[in-house]
Amino acid sequence: MEQLFELRPRKDLLDPTFEGYKLSLDSLPVYKHEVPVAVEHLKPNEEQFSFQHVKTFGLHNHLIDDPWSDEVAFFISKDLQIFKINLHSLVSQSPEFKSLWQIPRYLESRDGWFNASLSFAGPELAVVTDGGGVLHIVDTGVRTPTNSHLWQAKLSSEVLGKNDPFKITHSMLNATESNQSETLSVLALKVESIDKVESQIALSVFGCSEKETPFISCLEWVQYEHVDGHWSFKQLKRLAIPHGLDYASVLSPGKALCIIAREPLGIIFDSNKDVAAPLANSEIMQDETETKIAYTWTESPEEVTVWMTFDKQTSKHDLVVKIESQALKVVYKNQTYLVGELAHPISVGSSTWTLSDGKMEVILSKVDKSLSWNHLIQSDLRGRKVLDAETAADYESVINMGMKEGQAESGGRPPVFSSEQLEECDDMPMDESCIFRFDGETNEFTHKAILSGQLLFFTQSAPGLAPAFCLRHDVDGLIWQPMGDELEQSWGCLHTAALQALGYIQASKEQRKFTVAPPNMTYAALCDAFSHIYIYRQSNCTSTGVEMVHRPTGRRVGNIARQQVLNIDSTEECLGALATNSFLLLLTSSSLFAIRVNSD
């Protein structure tokens, strides 16, 4: 059970006397530069029609900042080159755009791919994907404006599936406790058809079905290990998030995650251990006279047939059946029902399973048709060998009775009413998003808080910290920083800054595409998809540009909150936005705009 915690705002960061923003007509320096190679924004194809696809493509930001250097920014061109931007050069007529690395391109067509993404895991390490299924670990060297070091790929992997598109959401590099090696954690987002998701438990546990949720978001947590100069795969965990992912980050030192999403969600796959509830040995190794029948099976010279009985309402999404050359595993929802080594090898390609009215039939094709099977699963006494399907049907009533007795012994009771009896007015909306801490060692959610306000945006934090996120609180936007696990206190999120009235303002901007704020939180910028930029300077911003006078009293006001509106000279869609303490950057397909917001 998760430990509930609260997001408690700091009163000293709130301003109850805030009266609003004053419109300023001051002009800001705007520098427009053509990019060396155009930027292409990929869009969903005809098969990617879910809301989760639209969200993943539509909110992709093509400008990438670097937590380890506030003097550079990056973007990926249409031909998959990674360019570095020297921010100080943008005020000159000769801006510095340097191509650092060419992402390998294995296919000519990028139809169905996500947009290429880049994340900086350490001061000299980055992870890159082409958006089409390949993950690259890249040595970047020190990323300063003057360093001309070209990047080098250290490992390229299709660990998340060949030609399966994904987007990198966060990455973090951590040294192990012995300092003998390093561990790289990468978070990748995939949106897949539920029939293609590899899972160790049934997706129906999270309410998934082809009719209601044909697509599902999966958060892939991949870990690599760096030992003696070589990178190697370490572990993969997969979390199912049916209603879509809002935020995900790795918490220092890389043993837990912070996730914002709607329930239900949970882990469905772990490459190092099974996440399904195990079958107790006491259920398998019983005296033959006391053993309860769990399945029946028979054989012919060509094949072995296994029957198992479940509730009549059981669908294929309630079951996970894994057939291997000499092993069989059946999971019902999140409980293992049958697992073990088969008596003899089988042909996996010609073996199959079906389900009808709660009765599952597994057909295993023999490799050696001259062998007779004395048992199905080694040391599993719960099965009965029968002559044919008719004899197996006689055992169904016995199996069903055993299932009902098991429910009675465990205190299970039939429901008071069926969910089918509920009408639309009885349905309780579950629109609340929550923030979770997921422990990678126990595969459990340890902390949970219900978000009382809308998630507005998230922004980069100091090196080694998870990105911060902004939540609406009343009319304001509050910045929250997820804590690392090194602190000797209960986990939570720290309130670090407030953007006055931002929640109210953002709700009125229907054409808004990006919301960004710099590390020092002196302003926030809302960027429309086309042309308009709204900048909201906080009262603590020293770059006011003009001294104001309070008319009723004649008192001079040094710093006030101000609003500035800009109209960008471009008909192209805004593909990226990035805020630094000095500059606001906007990227279109062919141009980069640098707006000098604050003087150094």
Automatic annotation (TrEMBL):
Presence of the UniProt keyword Flavoprotein in the record: no
GO cellular component: cytoplasm; nucleus
Keywords: Cytoplasm, Nucleus
Pfam families xrefs: CS
Domain of life: Eukaryota
Intracellular or extracellular location(s): Cytoplasm; Nucleus
Domain CS as annotated: residue spans: 290-377
Keyword Cytoplasm: yes
Segments crossing the lipid bilayer: none
Position of the signal peptide: none
Main location: cytoplasm
Protein's name in the database: NudC domain-containing protein 1
UniProt organism field: Daphnia sinensis
